[in-house]
Amino acid sequence: MLRIGTTVLTVEDLPRAVAFWTAALGYAPRSAPSDDWAILDPPGKAHWSGLEASLALSVTGYPQHYPPRLHLDLYAEDRAGETARLLALGAREVDWNGYPDDADYIVLEDTEGNRFCVVETGPFSGTG
């Protein structure tokens, strides 16, 4: 059986991306980042093969493509509060006209242009 172990985002400025995602998710670098690679693990992940998904950041030198073919959905009990916090960390709102009238999410991008959604969940219930 397969499972997602790590999602890899491409970045141009690795230290800036590490700073953003560690503050955004509360993840920590697994080890000291190299010049072009960092893996961030969630709190309490004891071994690289643990069930919790990690986030890796890779400097590739390739420009971002729009629209991107992949994005992260981040679940939040308080979408407005988390969105404000992420914007203060350096995220940017994406000017997107595809929102349905009853959208429970907002599209943002990180400091490197990687898009993600902040999805309102209400109290976490295990469904989304």
Give the structure's gist in a few sentences:
Keywords: Lyase. With 128 residues, the chain is α/β, with parallel strands linked by helices.
Order of helices and strands: EHEEEEHEEE
Structural shape: globular
Mean of residue pLDDT values:
90
Helical stretch count?
A: 2
Question: Briefly, what CATH class of the largest domain?
Answer: Alpha Beta
Gyration radius over CA: 15 Å
Q: Which residues sit in consecutive blocks of at least 5 with pLDDT less than 50?
A: none
Reported by name, the CATH topology of the largest domain is Signal recognition particle alu RNA binding heterodimer, srp9/1
- Estimate the strand proportion: 25-35%
Structural class: alpha/beta
Number of domains: 2
Largest sheet: 4 strands, mixed
Measured between the Cα atoms of the first and last residue, the distance is 22 Å
Output the strand order for the largest sheet.
1-4-3-2
Total E-strand runs: 8
CATH architecture of the largest domain: 2-Layer Sandwich
Helicity level: 10-25%
Description:
The chain has helices at 14-25, 79-89, and strands at 6-11, 28-29, 37-41, 54-59, 72-76, 92-93, 105-109, 115-120. The model has no long low-confidence stretch (mean pLDDT 90). The chain has 2 domains: 6-59, Signal recognition particle alu RNA binding heterodimer, srp9/1, CATH 3.30.720.120; 72-120, 2,3-Dihydroxybiphenyl 1,2-Dioxygenase, domain 1. The strands form 2 sheets. It has a 4-stranded mixed sheet with strand order 1-4-3-2, with helices on one face. It is of the alpha/beta class and 128 residues long. It contains 2 helices and 8 strands, in the order βαββββαβββ. This is Catechol 2,3-dioxygenase-like lactoylglutathione lyase family enzyme. GO terms for molecular function: lyase activity. It comes from Microbacterium invictum. Residues 3-121 form the VOC domain. Pfam families: Glyoxalase_6.
